[in-house]
Amino acid sequence: ARVWCGTTVGCAASLSRRDQLRQVRAAIRWVSGEPLLEPLDLSPWLADGTLSWVVVGGESGPRHRPMDRSWAEALLRQCQRHGVPFFLKQWSARLPKKAEYPPTIDGRVWHEYPTTP
Length: 117
What we know:
four-stranded parallel sheet; globular; alpha/beta
């Protein structure tokens, strides 16, 4: 299969969607923690190979809900531990491009992509 299949998991209430990804035959299965609204533990799905990519981003606009940097950093560390590419799109802000743009963690822009099998 050449399909990339993903789902949004920005909060703990949506984590069951990752289990549904396990059943999908796809070249790349990925999640978008966007908007990331709370800390998440993706370790089980990273460790078992369910997830091939993690994208993270904060909410934008006048009523944006804040994303704590430590939540994105924790997901980056989980991805690093399991060798899964990580992509940080933006921090939460009314106007993200007026905030730190491009966003960085450890002084680096994280725009990693998975390689297709």
